[in-house]
Fold this protein.
Amino acid sequence: MKTSFTRLFIFTCSFLTLLSARGENLASAEKYISTWKTEAIRQMHLYKIPASITLAQGILESGNGVSELAKKSNNHFGIKCHADWEGGRTYHDDDEKGECFRVYDHPRDSYEDHSKFLLRKRYEELFDLELGDYKGWAKGLKKCGYATNPKYSDLLITLIERHDLNRLDSEELDDDAITRVNRNDDVRERPDIYNNRTSTYIGIQRQRRDVITTDHGIQYIIARKGDSPKSLSNDLEMMAWQFRRYNEISKDHIFTDGERVYLQPKKKYAAYSWHVVRSGQTLWEISQIYGIKTSALLRKNNLSKGASLRIGQKLSLKWSLTKEGNLPWYAQLINSGKTNLE
């Protein structure tokens, strides 16, 4: 009898300890989310990475912000040094012994670097996904090699669903949050630096540029005379190849004053249904107006590469036309015969 009581006592204590630990972990996760959700939403509006993904990665990689790497190095995403890193360094055992990890002055810098890190070519396909597709993003990160853990995507999805983080993917930044995005008080107090919610300031340390968002969620800036992929890469701290790929241009391309320059990949569709070709317009110029890939324009309109356009020709921007040049039946039902021109 005494032995049974002792076992029951030990089991009860262990169970209560487990519940306490789980409660503590849950509380620390909620605290982490409360602390960093605004920053995750800000990064989403700047770089089009779902806030749910950013927060879930932060929770997982930093152990709710209390891992040694997070506390001592402000590195919340386990980002390693790599050859192009010129900042502080620290060394921890990870996949291999004594691996180099980045050190940041502030955790916010870690969030910013995480976003820029995902702009690499390796993760390019992720930006074709919708912001609300957190499962696609989670699986894509694993597929693209962000982590070696075979269950990495499942862990992210579990965290997002446990804490309802996907609700953040549709949130806007309030005006107070916009003015808190930089810790430099001199910059923060200057109202000319920040515009409205659809236009965000970037390049504080270099040239001032306003970032505008299309109706279907692609960020771009307005070119100045003489802008090129190389000069813009210096001004905006992006890689020159990104400007070339996102805008479908050559290495030697010079943007004209007032031209759109996309900071993210164009999509396979536009926010509008039709475009009527004007005199002198090329397929590339039309693709830049609407943020749609030229390959998508060709495919939707049954055009071959190098095909000439006619003045007054109607191009479909959303739907793939039939061989006869008509909208498919389901698109006709949705559009009810209406067109939405630029």
Q: What stands out?
A: The radius of gyration is 24 Å.
